Amino acid sequence: MTGYGKASVVFQNKKITAEIKSLNSKALDLSTRIAPIYREKEMDIRSMISTTLERGKVEFNLWIEKEESANESPLNGALLGTYYKQIKNICAEQNIPEPQDFWPTLMRMPDIMSRTEVQQELTDEEWNIARQAVENCLQQLTDFRRQEGAALQKKFEEKLDNIARLLSEIEPYEKSRTEKIRQRLEEGLQSIPNVEYDRGRLEQEMIFYIEKLDISEEKQRLTNHLKYFRETMEDGHGQGKKLGFIAQEMGREINTTGSKSNQAEMQNIVVKMKDELEQIKEQVLNVM
After folding, report:
1. How many other CB atoms sit within 10 Å of the CB of residue 21?
2. How far is CA 76 from CA 29, 86, 113, 207, in A?
């Protein structure tokens, strides 16, 4: 969901700039700052953004920069001449010495700077140009997101491969622990003096105990989740929440595997799998 886009267009003496930024969010959280002349088009702009972006905390700005020549405030020559004549006449009538330098006095007179205000009325022609800036900045944001998404998918594939590899590393310990359990139980019984036990019953108890520690189903389900995660990534955009749910299910199977692991080597592998999954969970929040 993270992205950035900025685009500018020129209309007459104005530079129109659109800028958009997006961060993680569970839904589309849009805030806008739009130049007054384009406020009447705010709903159109929001519609354009919501059509392009499904999720994310989005900040959109649209502003105008006028050329320097457009910001110039020319002197009001006619009023300047009137003030000059009035000052000279008053000085002559009242016997007051004329100022040696008229400019400081004249420049302080009211309305000496005449500024031509730009008519604040949006025309269809200007809006079509401004709309291009909005569309271009949205396209930049989309391109940015695609690049980030491709890099993120590559990262996910790497983490999924690591989990699958670690899962396969459990198998040797899983096979050897059955015999270790048998030996431990028999040694425990032999350590008790003058004890008699039914070997058939012992076998039944061992089978029951080993079945409780069996992780075959957890391994199979985790393998299916890894496959489903990859398939969901290939389905295109808008799968972020779904990927999050799959990651949660992967976590359940890894946790159950850890609780059934009664060997330090197996538990160490489970810890590594949890670390890989945690990195997936952190990054999946950034997927639309």
Report:
1. 17
2. 49, 16, 6, 104
Instruction: Assess contact for 29 and 56: CB atoms under 8 A.
Output: yes
Adjacent-strand bridge partners of 31:
59
Bridging pattern class, strands 28-34 and 3-11: unpaired
Q: Round to whole Å and give the CA distance between 203 and 207.
A: 6
Residues in contact with 237: Cβ distance below 8 Å, sequence separation at least 6, in sequence order? 54, 149, 288
- Contact by Cβ (8 Å): 172, 49: no
- Give 112-137 pLDDT, tens digit per residue: 665 444 446 889 999 999 999 999 99
Whether this model's pTM surpasses 0.70: no
What is Dmax (Cα atoms) for the chain? 140
What pLDDT band is residue 247 in, cutting at 50, 70 and 90?
Answer: very high
Please give the span between the terminal C-alpha atoms of the chain, in angstroms, as a whole number: 6
Task: Show the domains of the chain with their CATH numbers.
Answer: 3-69+122-145 (3.30.230), 74-107 (no CATH), 149-284 (no CATH)
